[in-house]
Design a protein that fits this description.
It contains three helices and four strands, in the order βααββαβ. By secondary structure, it is α+β, with helices and mostly antiparallel strands.
Length: 106
């Protein structure tokens, strides 16, 4: 299956680094299953501790259905769970800024 890699950044609120890590270490199985079911794999999030910028990179299938995530109850519950820790939009989703790939080496 062919995949594409995308990257984006999100923004952690000060003082929530440990809790953000803890919640992701205990990622809900139903969220993991949902992400896989819409075509997401190899998903990593990195933290710049100086700026509190979260850098995320994931692979998604060419036929992914990521656009359906905002409407899914599990995703909405996760956003509510994470909202106190991050900059968010009015609907509770994290503020996400796409990043352009400027270099890649296989």
């Amino acid at each position: 299956m062919q995949t594409e890699k995308i990257a984006f950044r999100m923004f952690l609120l000060p003082g929530h680094e440990a809790e953000y890590q803890r919640r992701h270490d205990a990622l809900w199985p139903e969220l993991r299953d949902l992400l896989h079911s819409v075509g997401i794999s190899d998903y990593s999030i990195y933290l710049d501790k100086t700026s509190l910028v979260l850098f995320a990179v994931l692979r998604r299938s060419r036929t992914h259905r990521m656009d359906s995530l905002p409407n899914h109850p599990v995703m909405q519950r996760w956003w509510q769970h994470m909202q106190p820790l991050m900059r968010t939009n009015p609907d509770g989703s994290p503020v996400v800024e796409p990043l352009d790939c400027v270099f890649h080496l296989d």
